[in-house]
Amino acid sequence: MRKARLLTAFTLLLTLLIGACERPTQTNQSGEVQQKQYARLIAKPCWFKTDDTWPFTQCFMMEVPEDYRHPEKRKIRFPVVRFRATNPDPSKIPLLHLGAGGPGASMGLEPENASDWLWLNYAAMTVEDGRDLFVIDPRGTGMAQPRLTCSEFIEDADTAFQRNLSPEEEARVFSFSMERCYSRLSKGSDLAQYNSSVIARDVDELRKLFKLDKFDLYGVSYSSRYALTVARDYPESVRALVLNSAVFPNIVYTQQLPQDSLAAYERGLKHCIDDEKCNSLYPDLRRRLENLVQTLDEKPRTISIKHRYSKQRYPFVLTGQRLLRVLFQALYNENFYNELPKMIEGLESNNDEGLQPAQEAIAHFMEIVLDPYFGDAAGVSHFCYEEAPFVNFDKAKASAAETGILGGAVRSDLNLLQIQCRIWAIPSAPLTESQAIATPAPVIVLHGGLDPVLAANDVDTARKELPNHQWLLFPNLAHDIISASNCAERAVARFLDNPKEDQTETTMTCRKAELADQLSTQQESDQEPTESQAAEVPAPESGQ
């Protein structure tokens, strides 16, 4: 996720308790039915800094039962931030941002991470358009209490990536990390209560506490699955959905991991191979990457990097298998595609010249691995509950044999996923969690043709189960379309104002101009004329 935005702020200093209604009921002396209160919303002084460019900002902690079947028992909390519209329009209901995805990713609400990106990235569709914006970290992630982070994994990874370990040795290290993590967290949390259906219940309780009839829902990456689940389980609570780089429950992503991973690398390589100028500068790129992976597996190379969690230079030991993981993570950002050939060439050299692309990609990889706010244990709970039961792991591992240099890394990942679920030992989701959600609510689906983890072809098929949707495909973008294109943000703003209005043509025109501006800027920065690439990117397509 990336990008930034603008307005005026004020921090709420009152502590306010609002009772929420739960299902268990009792009758008072007058015979009226009263619902017992188990959830509450606690207003807090905002824990992050704002300034006078921010909208009026209110901060809360939402307290809910960890297990709704036993609401009187353990309570947990997750953060809620409300950005008020500059000029509120009473006819526009709020947009709820369901978190950063992952599952387990932090929204960046922590004091040291919070910035105007939290609202500026969505300003055109919310606070600047008369609509309030709500932002949350779902249970178990970011600023939630508890945050289900495997500190054992972070500590072991910090050490492991400084050593030359075989894939088998690395897998043993991380399996032991997860065993210790589960042993610690399971003493104070029921790890079976962290999944999409429970988060959907949290969202509906939040709606009740704010006395709202409906929300518009915004989901990016895995949080788009939360949006779909809310629409399925609480259809009367939802007006419209915005799905950005969407995850659909009827796509078993792990089953397709070998093929999708191979396709992602192929797209990365073809970006240069199919470009005459790039291919002439970096010929035979596919073979060179294969040779580089083999060379680094035989003779790993230590790359000195600096990342945000290291106080000094960090000696990352780069093996061929680790290179593949670093590259895959880098391919989430379309801007990396131009850097991939440079990174391969830089690593082919024995000197340190040309290593900057590799150093930046490795630093980004390590910042994700070592992120203390990532609720990776919550992510494991999601996977083991709502995806793993529907995966044929033997078949997936057999498919890995057909992915060439990726085979070892993919098999290792599949093995580790199975081990994690054996450790977690939580019940499996019902079949419902693997079925298409055909909500009648209006939906806009935005997707990138370069997305490495959510293949556009799969999403193009899955979205057709939605009876009332619009489809905007951005062929030259990867993961998180809203953060990469102002045209996408404007399209969503128009959609929320009028879900019946088709956004294809308007977005097509906007995107062509946006690409032309980007090309012009690139030419100026290169200080030399560049052959026009305006035709390289087809405009967003309508799939309806």
UniProtKB/TrEMBL annotation:
UniProt keyword Lipoprotein present: no
Protein name: Alpha/beta fold hydrolase
Endpoints of the signal sequence: 1-20
SUPFAM superfamilies referenced in this protein's UniProt entry, alphabetically: alpha/beta-Hydrolases
Residue stretches making up the Peptidase S33 tripeptidyl aminopeptidase-like C-terminal domain: 418-507
Positions of the AB hydrolase-1 domain: 127-246
This protein's UniProt keywords: Hydrolase, Signal
Alphabetical list of InterPro entries matching this protein: AB_hydrolase_1 (IPR000073), AB_hydrolase_fold (IPR029058), AB_hydrolase_sf (IPR050266), Pept_S33_TAP-like_C (IPR013595)
GO CC annotation terms, alphabetical: membrane
Coiled coil: none
Protein's organism: Microbulbifer okhotskensis
Tree of life domain: Bacteria
GO-annotated molecular function: hydrolase activity
Annotated region described as Disordered, given as residue ranges: 499-544
Gene3D superfamilies in UniProt: alpha/beta hydrolase
PANTHER family according to UniProt: HYDROLASE ALPHA_BETA HYDROLASE FOLD FAMILY (PTHR43798:SF27), MONOACYLGLYCEROL LIPASE (PTHR43798)
